[in-house]
Amino acid sequence: MTFQTLAIISVVALLGPLLAIPRRARLPVMLGQLLAGIIVGQSGLRLVDSTDPSITLLADVGFALMMFVAGTHVPLRDGQNRSALRRGAARATVTAVFAAGLGAGIAALFGINHAPLYIVLLASSSAALVLPIIDSLRLKGSPVLEVIAQVAIADIAAIVALPLAIDPPNAGRAALGAAAVAGASVVLYLVLSRLEATGARLRLHHLSESRRFALELRIQLAVLFGMAALAVYSHVSIMLAGFSFGLAVAAVGEPRRLARQLFAIADGFLGPLFFVWLGASLNLLDLLNRPQMILLGLTLGVAAVLAHAVTRALGLPLPLGLMSAAQLGVPVAAVTIGSQSNLLLPGEAAALILGALVTIGVSAIAGGRAAAPPEAEPVSPPRPPGDRDPLTQRTSSRTPEGTLRNSRRAHSVDAVSARVSRSYCRTERARPGDEPRRSHVERVNEEVEVNTGVIEKYRRHGNGRGLVSPAARVHASAFVSSTAYVESGAQVSAESWIGPGSWIDHGAVIGSKVFIGQNVHVGADAQVGNGARLGSHSRIGRNARIPAGAVLDRDLRVPDNAVATATASRAAHAAHRRADLPGTGLRSAA
């Protein structure tokens, strides 16, 4: 491998983002990268040698990292998804039953002794594809939550079963190796949970951030490579090592800063290199010489769609059922394992990828059908003069001709308490005769990549320059530091102060005159009373309650659904070590 080869791979991999730019098509980036690999590989220009040991090693690292990222996408910590687990599991089971019949029939029809492999492929789903589609289309509701649970279950089960299905004669050895990797991931989960509960992980995070050590990234990569070494030693795929480690991290909760770092490495270099290498290793000339394999790929794709469409009989809307058929990670893993172990027939690897492309196309179309038409911007009813808005605490002074200028539509002053408009610059008057002034939220959107590549839009708050979601409600007198985030649905009342690096999660409510130190996380739907003070590096759990006037010392963690006492400090930490909620000075909300 030379720098010339790396330059070629980096340039042609740009085809992935170029093809994914049109939003209506919603094509995954990896499709363009696979196509680029086919063009420069043995099926095309032969500029990249997929048998080069150095490129193969880097591709294996990218493969393990991509599987790790896919594992972190599984929403194990979402309480709403856990409540939909039962129906999702039932639908995944029904899909697997139909997939068993279809997979066995396809293997018998084509005379190929790979029925277990086809069954796993037909029953699988790709959380790394379906979840971004759901997020980009903003699909919501209980059926969507059930689809998320179904996809997560199918993805986990397929990745665990694939090493056993692709090589049945060595299934016993693969089962022992898979058990060893799974046991190691359970140990990792217990260790990570303990570090999170004691605050050691948070202290390491602050040290790494302040000293720019990147310790979290270094440790995660070291653990990932250790898991991959265990998988190789146990004769199982590194796919299982990466995915199981990703699940362990997802169960504890992946830090946002680490997610951004991993996104840069995985989607910026090693991931594209892996997909280009995979495309370069495919020989599509085998498909031209073997038309039977083209028919096999199309049949596998159609059968996978049919297997997931049967969930319509269990009450799932048909577009959502078709969308859940999207698969790429498992077919790619099957091709990688089968090609490296010489377990697939000539042309069969390309046929598996062709079948995956069919499911992706159907899923993209079905996702567009499932998307609801955009809702109109809400407009609050007029308030009588002198009435005070409960959020902004402003007195309405509406005049008959309206109070907003420089707007494409007529909006009320109270639109600040509804969803902030995404398309216009608002000005308002506090009293008749005053000169219009700019709203406290800027007009220009800023796109920010969160987690593993999801793009969300924010606007700069006029007081402090912090990033505020268009769907958040922040009082004009509140101060939001430039590196702080306020997510959609959150409310920040008058004269509150949000420090640098703090994150106000979805639906959280911050009272008036609240002080929030730096690097504080206020969880989703949490409530902080008027005049409360949250010390730096505190973590307020989901749906937690902080009473008015409470004072929390730094580095404290309030568990989910808990209620803080008036004063929670490190002294309270020692006094409550043996309580139901140790180390917090808290009592259960229940």
Give a quick set of tags describing it.
590 residues, alpha/beta, Na+/H+ antiporter like fold, UDP N-Acetylglucosamine Acyltransferase, domain 1, eight-stranded mixed β-sheet, 20 helices, 50% helix, globular, disordered C terminus
Descriptive account of the structure:
Its main location: membrane. One of its GO terms (biological process) is proton transmembrane transport. One of its GO terms (molecular function) is antiporter activity. With 590 residues, the protein is α/β, with parallel strands linked by helices. The chain is built from 20 helices and 23 strands. The strands form five sheets. The chain has an eight-stranded mixed β-sheet. It has a six-stranded parallel β-sheet with strand order 7-10-13-16-19-22. The chain is globular, with a radius of gyration of 26 Å.
Concise structural overview:
The chain is an alpha/beta fold and 590 residues long.
Blueprint of the fold:
Elements: H1 3-12, H2 15-20, H3 29-40, H4 53-72, H5 79-83, H6 85-110, H7 115-123, H8 127-137, H9 142-166, H10 171-198, H11 200-211, H12 215-233, H13 238-252, H14 256-281, H15 285-289, H16 291-309, H17 318-323, H18 329-341, H19 348-370, E1 427-428, E2 437-438, E3 446-450, E4 454-460, E5 467-468, E6 473-474, E7 479-480, E8 485-486, E9 491-492, E10 497-498, E11 503-504, E12 509-510, E13 515-516, E14 521-522, E15 527-528, E16 533-534, E17 539-540, E18 545-546, E19 551-552, E20 557-558, E21 562-564, E22 567-568, H20 570-575, E23 586-588
Parallel strand pairs: 5-8, 6-9, 7-10, 8-11, 9-12, 10-13, 11-14, 12-15, 13-16, 14-17, 15-18, 16-19, 17-20, 19-22
Antiparallel strand pairs: 1-2, 3-4, 4-5, 21-23
Helix pairs in contact: 1-14, 3-14, 4-13, 4-14, 6-7, 6-9, 6-16, 7-9, 7-16, 8-9, 8-19, 9-10, 9-18, 10-12, 10-13, 12-13, 16-19, 18-19
